[in-house]
Amino acid sequence: MPSEVIYNRIAMLRAERGISRRDLAEALGVHYQTIGYLERGEYSPSLHLALRIAAYFEVAVEVVFSTEPFPRLGTGTA
């Protein structure tokens, strides 16, 4: 049985908004390394944390997290 991987766009959302891992961690009340673990897919967030991350970025949770890999941005032909 494959492991349950949760894909996310946290790094992309942080970059778009100019937010550091440390700033995001402080806003969420978690250790800054937790953000790195989440971004690398080494840790899956609790539902509560996932919802708080989505709320922080003011987007739906599905914009941040998915059970399927997100399509790469900027690839393909126009």
UniProtKB/TrEMBL annotation:
Molecular function per GO: DNA binding
Superkingdom of the organism of origin: Bacteria
Keyword Protease carried by entry: no
Keyword DNA-binding attributed: yes
Alphabetically ordered keywords of this record: DNA-binding
SMART domains the record matches: HTH_XRE (SM00530)
Domain HTH cro/C1-type: 10-64
CDD domains referenced in this protein's UniProt entry, alphabetically: HTH_XRE
Pfam families named among the record's database cross-references: HTH_3 (PF01381)
InterPro entries: Cro/C1-type_HTH, Lambda_DNA-bd_dom_sf
PANTHER family reported in the protein's UniProt record: DNA-BIDING PHAGE PROTEIN, TRACRIPTIONAL REGULATORY PROTEIN-RELATED-RELATED
Protein name as annotated: Helix-turn-helix transcriptional regulator
